[in-house]
Amino acid sequence: MDNNKIKAKHLSLIEQKIIYKWFSFLINEEMAQVKRLISAEILLAGFYQRQEKVQQVFKLITSDTFNLTHDLPKWSRYFFEGCRLTEYYQLKYGLITLEDFKNQVAGKQRRLFKMKKINYGIVSTAQVVPRFIAGVRESQFGHVAAICSRHLDSAKEYAEKYQIPAYYGSEAELFDNPEIDVIYIANYNAGHFQSAKNALLARKHVLLEKPFTLEYAQAQTLFELAKEKRLFLMEAQKSLFLPLTKEIKKIISDQRIGEIISVFSVTAYASVDHIKWFKDLSAGGGTVHFMAPYAFSYLPFILDKKIESFNGIAQQPANSSDIQSMIHLAFETGILANIYLTTRKGLPKQLRIIGSKGEIVIPEFWRSKQAIINYDDGSSEIIEAPFSSDFQFEVDHVNQKIMDGALKSDIMTPELTLSGVKMMDSLYQEWSSQGE
Question: What pTM, to 2 d.p., does this model score?
Answer without folding.
Answer: 0.76
